[in-house]
């Protein structure tokens, strides 16, 4: 397969890059000074694209690559891929579900604990020597708080399971009620937000779920509520979120994703009731290797005419 | 009961102070230039002492309070109270178990997640603009599925185990005797526990026997990929050994809520990225502080009304 041309959209993982180079003819999109020329030059050879949460395969790119057969995403989210266009053109699409579920769910709980118990603020307090002059102030308990989950898929369920270990009652919103769970269902995100202490975004990003957390939802969550976003930045109306936090209309937020990564609204930097992470939901040594292996496994299967491991289209 | 003299050893809760003031004659030790000054004026009026993790009732103090009947600690830990002396003198002792179990277990898991997933370092990375500049943060380590070794499987240790299980972790423990009603793997030797787990959590009471229970040998057994979490007492861990192990890479990381000489924290730790350092906040939530204070007040009321104590230790 060394002659099969694969286009990698951005740096994402050294191991993956290395392995792709060993098995295929690897092109690195981000190193090309003139990307349009590059695409026309190689239009007849590129048969696979490897993307991630930052860059995938949008309509323009797909149109520019007539020989494209498969898009293999180093992510579970598919919002950067034009799935409809891929379906139309018979282009296969794979992602990396399951292998990253635990890490993302772990981080969601980590964000909840860090926000409610002010873990990062406390750590800074110690490091700057403030403890010598007085104890840190009281924070708020996590155990037993109601957790409302938007999207009860693999990741949402994994978050629920963990939160139950802390005796948190679980409620959720999704397009339809799930038959096999005892968790409390709400038919609207606003209702969910009114009835929980901590609201977690864990659904896929689609045109329907863009800004699913808007002003109304933030108001319903309220001045004691905490928002956790481990989905995609565009799930949340970011300017509304920022003003709610600055004005005290929302109790706090734990955010791993933002509307325009790596841009993060600077007004949040001075707040103690937010935790800001650089999209590290699946960022562990163990999981990134597993994700890379899924990408490689899918590409090899495709070019060997075998069934794909994790097809979406 | 307004004539009952209750001495509070140090500031610990404004709410508790208010509640004690409403019911008793509250004497605040810290408002006097020295303990000697206080005792000269009030040693004969003190019938109860309310202490905490910083300042309790040691042998000397107990000797100098002839009318002392009860020590009610605003803590579950009893290491600052001379229990033997209290037993000798027939002085009752109460603490605040159960009400703080969840909060302390939450902080233990919070420390594990913060240490393994580098949450505080990541937050700093964003706030200092490094992410915006195009740097990417290094990969962290997965928590789910790791093996947790708990030193002390009491209320808090069990609560930590319950939470860790929800992350698919395997649980093992060391305690003085094997617990009958659990399936967790027991190690009668703490070194074996440390050798066989990824994350070692200190959750036992501090006594003479458990002082420095985490020593050089245990740290070596935990090893260069191991993480130590301490939500017990600072003296559970040989702090000097811990610091050198961390600085020399013989231990992968640590999450510490307690230190040998609080509020002093070893300077060498302050520059390390692989540690999370908290100012003894295990039970410091609004909800739990109130519950702890209510329990202290309820124990004192019960005692002076000659009713059974709620949470007696002695």
From TrEMBL, chain A:
Every D-isomer specific 2-hydroxyacid dehydrogenase NAD-binding domain range: 109-281
Domain D-isomer specific 2-hydroxyacid dehydrogenase catalytic: 12-312
Presence of keyword NAD: yes
Alphabetical UniProt keywords: NAD, Oxidoreductase
CDD domains assigned to the protein according to its UniProt record, in alphabetical order: HPPR
Family (UniProt): Belongs to the D-isomer specific 2-hydroxyacid dehydrogenase family.
PANTHER family per record: 2-HYDROXYACID DEHYDROGENASE YGL185C-RELATED, 2-HYDROXYACID DEHYDROGENASE-RELATED
Name of the protein in question: Hydroxyphenylpyruvate reductase
Organism: Penstemon davidsonii
TrEMBL record, chain B:
Keyword presence, Magnesium: no
Alphabetized InterPro entries for the sequence: D-isomer_2-hydroxyacid_DH, D-isomer_2_OHA_DH_cat_dom, D-isomer_DH_CS1, D-isomer_DH_NAD-bd, NAD(P)-bd_dom_sf
Pfam families noted in UniProt: 2-Hacid_dh, 2-Hacid_dh_C
Ranges where the D-isomer specific 2-hydroxyacid dehydrogenase NAD-binding domain occurs: 109-282
UniProt entry keywords in alphabetical sequence: Oxidoreductase
Ranges of residues in domain D-isomer specific 2-hydroxyacid dehydrogenase catalytic: 14-313
Keyword Oxidoreductase: yes
Domain of life assignment: Eukaryota
Family, as annotated: Belongs to the D-isomer specific 2-hydroxyacid dehydrogenase family.
Identification of the protein by name: Hydroxyphenylpyruvate reductase
Taxonomy of the source species: Eukaryota, Viridiplantae, Streptophyta, Embryophyta, Tracheophyta
